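Batch manifest, entry 17 of 40.
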Amino acid sequence: MLRGIDHIVIAAANLNDAVRNYNEAGFHVVAGGRHPIGTHNALIALADGAYIELISPMQDNIKTRWGKLLQDGSGLVDFCLQSDNLVDEIDRFRHAGIRMSDRQLLSRVRPDGYQLRWAFSTPDDVSPGLIPFLIQDETPRQERVPKETTHPNKVSGIVALTIAINDLPTISRSYAAILKTDGTGIVRDDLNAIGVRFTMGHRKLDLLISKGGNGRLSKWLRERGPSLYSVTLKTKGGRVELMDDGKTRRLLPVIGR
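Output type: C-alpha coordinates
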Protein backbone atom coordinates (compact mmCIF):
# COMPACT_ATOMS: atom_id res chain seq x y z
CA MET A 1 0.00 0.00 0.00
CA LEU A 2 1.16 3.52 -0.79
CA ARG A 3 1.47 5.75 2.27
CA GLY A 4 1.73 9.06 0.40
CA ILE A 5 4.62 11.38 -0.42
CA ASP A 6 7.79 10.35 1.38
CA HIS A 7 10.09 13.11 0.19
CA ILE A 8 11.04 15.61 -2.50
CA VAL A 9 14.52 15.51 -4.07
CA ILE A 10 16.56 18.63 -4.83
CA ALA A 11 19.88 18.13 -6.62
CA ALA A 12 22.64 20.52 -5.59
CA ALA A 13 26.15 20.62 -7.03
CA ASN A 14 27.56 21.58 -3.61
CA LEU A 15 25.81 20.47 -0.43
CA ASN A 16 27.29 23.20 1.79
CA ASP A 17 25.99 25.87 -0.58
CA ALA A 18 22.55 24.26 -0.66
CA VAL A 19 22.38 24.05 3.12
CA ARG A 20 23.33 27.70 3.42
CA ASN A 21 20.73 28.73 0.79
CA TYR A 22 17.92 26.86 2.52
CA ASN A 23 18.93 28.05 5.97
CA GLU A 24 18.77 31.60 4.62
CA ALA A 25 15.31 30.80 3.17
CA GLY A 26 14.14 30.03 6.71
CA PHE A 27 14.39 26.24 6.84
CA HIS A 28 15.88 24.18 9.65
CA VAL A 29 18.29 21.94 7.71
CA VAL A 30 19.71 18.77 9.30
CA ALA A 31 22.77 16.85 8.09
CA GLY A 32 21.67 13.53 6.60
CA GLY A 33 24.83 11.54 5.96
CA ARG A 34 26.56 9.58 3.21
CA HIS A 35 25.35 7.00 0.72
CA PRO A 36 27.64 4.22 -0.57
CA ILE A 37 26.98 5.35 -4.17
CA GLY A 38 29.03 8.53 -3.66
CA THR A 39 26.40 11.06 -2.62
CA HIS A 40 25.60 12.87 0.61
CA ASN A 41 22.55 14.78 1.75
CA ALA A 42 20.85 17.13 4.15
CA LEU A 43 17.19 17.02 5.10
CA ILE A 44 14.32 19.37 5.85
CA ALA A 45 11.59 17.55 7.78
CA LEU A 46 8.03 18.88 7.59
CA ALA A 47 5.25 18.69 10.16
CA ASP A 48 2.97 16.79 7.75
CA GLY A 49 5.41 13.84 7.68
CA ALA A 50 7.14 14.43 4.35
CA TYR A 51 10.61 15.91 3.95
CA ILE A 52 12.82 17.70 1.44
CA GLU A 53 16.13 16.06 0.55
CA LEU A 54 19.08 18.17 -0.59
CA ILE A 55 21.49 15.78 -2.28
CA SER A 56 24.91 16.36 -3.83
CA PRO A 57 27.67 14.27 -5.45
CA MET A 58 30.88 13.48 -3.60
CA GLN A 59 32.59 12.10 -6.71
CA ASP A 60 32.24 11.92 -10.49
CA ASN A 61 30.20 9.28 -12.34
CA ILE A 62 27.56 8.77 -9.68
CA LYS A 63 25.56 5.59 -10.29
CA THR A 64 22.06 6.95 -9.84
CA ARG A 65 19.14 7.78 -12.09
CA TRP A 66 19.80 11.49 -11.48
CA GLY A 67 23.29 11.31 -13.01
CA LYS A 68 24.09 14.60 -14.72
CA LEU A 69 21.31 16.37 -12.80
CA LEU A 70 23.40 15.98 -9.65
CA GLN A 71 26.60 17.18 -11.26
CA ASP A 72 24.79 20.22 -12.69
CA GLY A 73 22.96 21.03 -9.46
CA SER A 74 19.68 20.99 -11.35
CA GLY A 75 17.43 21.80 -8.41
CA LEU A 76 14.00 20.20 -8.08
CA VAL A 77 14.34 16.82 -9.79
CA ASP A 78 12.20 14.06 -8.28
CA PHE A 79 9.78 12.81 -5.65
CA CYS A 80 9.23 9.58 -3.79
CA LEU A 81 6.18 7.69 -2.52
CA GLN A 82 6.37 5.60 0.64
CA SER A 83 5.20 1.97 0.49
CA ASP A 84 4.62 -0.66 3.14
CA ASN A 85 4.71 -3.47 0.55
CA LEU A 86 7.22 -2.60 -2.15
CA VAL A 87 7.01 -5.86 -4.12
CA ASP A 88 3.23 -5.55 -4.51
CA GLU A 89 3.51 -1.89 -5.52
CA ILE A 90 6.13 -2.70 -8.15
CA ASP A 91 3.73 -5.25 -9.64
CA ARG A 92 0.86 -2.76 -9.55
CA PHE A 93 2.93 -0.07 -11.26
CA ARG A 94 3.95 -2.57 -13.93
CA HIS A 95 0.33 -3.54 -14.53
CA ALA A 96 -0.34 0.18 -15.00
CA GLY A 97 2.15 0.12 -17.87
CA ILE A 98 5.10 1.62 -16.00
CA ARG A 99 8.42 -0.18 -16.27
CA MET A 100 9.73 -0.36 -12.72
CA SER A 101 13.10 -1.69 -11.61
CA ASP A 102 13.27 -4.76 -9.45
CA ARG A 103 13.57 -4.22 -5.69
CA GLN A 104 16.95 -2.66 -4.85
CA LEU A 105 18.70 -1.93 -1.57
CA LEU A 106 20.44 1.24 -0.41
CA SER A 107 21.75 2.67 2.83
CA ARG A 108 22.95 5.88 4.44
CA VAL A 109 25.25 6.42 7.39
CA ARG A 110 24.16 9.34 9.56
CA PRO A 111 26.77 11.66 11.10
CA ASP A 112 26.30 9.83 14.41
CA GLY A 113 27.25 6.51 12.77
CA TYR A 114 23.76 4.96 12.63
CA GLN A 115 23.21 3.03 9.39
CA LEU A 116 19.82 3.45 7.75
CA ARG A 117 18.64 0.81 5.27
CA TRP A 118 15.76 0.78 2.80
CA ALA A 119 14.52 -0.89 -0.37
CA PHE A 120 13.46 1.09 -3.42
CA SER A 121 12.30 0.85 -7.02
CA THR A 122 12.56 3.42 -9.82
CA PRO A 123 10.69 3.87 -13.11
CA ASP A 124 13.05 2.80 -15.89
CA ASP A 125 11.85 4.49 -19.05
CA VAL A 126 10.77 7.99 -18.01
CA SER A 127 12.60 11.15 -16.99
CA PRO A 128 13.16 11.70 -13.26
CA GLY A 129 10.27 13.58 -11.70
CA LEU A 130 7.67 12.41 -14.19
CA ILE A 131 6.68 9.24 -12.32
CA PRO A 132 7.68 8.85 -8.64
CA PHE A 133 10.10 6.28 -7.32
CA LEU A 134 9.13 4.07 -4.38
CA ILE A 135 10.71 3.39 -1.00
CA GLN A 136 10.16 0.94 1.86
CA ASP A 137 12.15 1.21 5.06
CA GLU A 138 14.07 -1.69 6.58
CA THR A 139 15.24 0.35 9.56
CA PRO A 140 12.57 2.51 11.27
CA ARG A 141 11.48 5.49 9.18
CA GLN A 142 11.62 7.76 12.23
CA GLU A 143 15.38 7.20 12.22
CA ARG A 144 15.60 8.31 8.58
CA VAL A 145 13.63 11.53 9.02
CA PRO A 146 14.85 14.35 11.29
CA LYS A 147 12.74 15.02 14.35
CA GLU A 148 12.89 18.83 14.03
CA THR A 149 9.84 19.86 11.94
CA THR A 150 9.45 23.56 12.79
CA HIS A 151 11.06 26.26 10.67
CA PRO A 152 11.54 30.03 11.00
CA ASN A 153 9.67 30.52 7.70
CA LYS A 154 6.64 28.64 9.16
CA VAL A 155 6.55 26.05 6.34
CA SER A 156 4.64 23.05 7.67
CA GLY A 157 3.98 20.74 4.74
CA ILE A 158 3.42 19.99 1.08
CA VAL A 159 0.18 21.20 -0.51
CA ALA A 160 0.71 20.25 -4.15
CA LEU A 161 3.10 19.01 -6.80
CA THR A 162 3.04 20.32 -10.36
CA ILE A 163 4.48 18.13 -13.12
CA ALA A 164 5.12 19.45 -16.64
CA ILE A 165 4.27 16.82 -19.27
CA ASN A 166 3.87 16.53 -23.04
CA ASP A 167 1.54 13.50 -23.22
CA LEU A 168 -1.51 14.15 -21.08
CA PRO A 169 -3.61 11.06 -21.98
CA THR A 170 -0.82 8.54 -21.32
CA ILE A 171 0.56 10.06 -18.12
CA SER A 172 -2.87 10.77 -16.63
CA ARG A 173 -3.94 7.16 -17.29
CA SER A 174 -0.82 5.96 -15.48
CA TYR A 175 -1.55 8.14 -12.46
CA ALA A 176 -5.20 7.10 -12.41
CA ALA A 177 -4.05 3.47 -12.19
CA ILE A 178 -1.38 4.23 -9.58
CA LEU A 179 -3.63 6.30 -7.32
CA LYS A 180 -6.82 4.31 -7.99
CA THR A 181 -8.79 7.46 -8.67
CA ASP A 182 -9.86 9.59 -11.60
CA GLY A 183 -8.45 13.06 -11.98
CA THR A 184 -10.37 16.22 -12.78
CA GLY A 185 -9.63 18.64 -15.59
CA ILE A 186 -8.01 21.95 -14.71
CA VAL A 187 -6.97 25.14 -16.49
CA ARG A 188 -3.90 27.11 -15.40
CA ASP A 189 -4.06 30.47 -17.17
CA ASP A 190 -1.00 31.68 -15.24
CA LEU A 191 1.07 29.02 -17.02
CA ASN A 192 -0.94 28.96 -20.27
CA ALA A 193 -1.59 25.30 -19.54
CA ILE A 194 -4.32 22.71 -19.12
CA GLY A 195 -4.17 19.40 -17.34
CA VAL A 196 -5.52 16.91 -14.85
CA ARG A 197 -5.54 17.17 -11.06
CA PHE A 198 -5.31 14.14 -8.77
CA THR A 199 -5.78 14.11 -5.01
CA MET A 200 -3.42 12.20 -2.71
CA GLY A 201 -4.85 12.49 0.78
CA HIS A 202 -4.67 16.21 1.64
CA ARG A 203 -2.30 16.94 -1.24
CA LYS A 204 -2.87 17.70 -4.90
CA LEU A 205 -0.89 16.52 -7.91
CA ASP A 206 -1.29 18.54 -11.11
CA LEU A 207 -0.25 17.18 -14.51
CA LEU A 208 0.05 20.10 -16.91
CA ILE A 209 0.58 20.37 -20.64
CA SER A 210 1.37 23.65 -22.34
CA LYS A 211 -1.22 25.20 -24.64
CA GLY A 212 1.65 26.63 -26.69
CA GLY A 213 3.21 30.04 -26.95
CA ASN A 214 5.94 31.40 -24.71
CA GLY A 215 4.51 30.73 -21.26
CA ARG A 216 6.63 29.60 -18.33
CA LEU A 217 5.57 25.97 -18.65
CA SER A 218 6.31 25.91 -22.38
CA LYS A 219 9.78 27.33 -21.73
CA TRP A 220 10.37 24.74 -18.97
CA LEU A 221 9.41 21.87 -21.28
CA ARG A 222 11.75 23.12 -24.01
CA GLU A 223 14.67 23.41 -21.58
CA ARG A 224 14.09 20.54 -19.13
CA GLY A 225 11.58 18.24 -20.81
CA PRO A 226 8.75 16.51 -18.94
CA SER A 227 9.62 16.69 -15.24
CA LEU A 228 8.68 17.93 -11.79
CA TYR A 229 8.01 21.66 -12.19
CA SER A 230 7.20 22.96 -8.72
CA VAL A 231 6.21 22.06 -5.16
CA THR A 232 3.68 24.21 -3.29
CA LEU A 233 4.35 24.40 0.44
CA LYS A 234 1.99 25.41 3.24
CA THR A 235 3.03 28.11 5.68
CA LYS A 236 1.33 29.75 8.63
CA GLY A 237 0.71 32.84 6.52
CA GLY A 238 -0.38 31.14 3.30
CA ARG A 239 1.57 29.28 0.65
CA VAL A 240 4.91 29.48 -1.12
CA GLU A 241 6.12 27.71 -4.22
CA LEU A 242 9.45 25.92 -4.39
CA MET A 243 10.79 25.93 -7.93
CA ASP A 244 13.88 26.55 -10.03
CA ASP A 245 14.97 29.96 -11.24
CA GLY A 246 17.71 29.03 -13.65
CA LYS A 247 20.21 27.11 -11.54
CA THR A 248 19.34 28.84 -8.30
CA ARG A 249 16.68 27.59 -5.93
CA ARG A 250 14.37 30.07 -4.32
CA LEU A 251 10.91 30.44 -2.81
CA LEU A 252 8.36 32.32 -4.88
CA PRO A 253 5.01 33.55 -3.52
CA VAL A 254 1.92 31.83 -4.88
CA ILE A 255 -0.97 34.18 -5.49
CA GLY A 256 -4.62 33.39 -6.13
CA ARG A 257 -4.80 29.64 -5.44
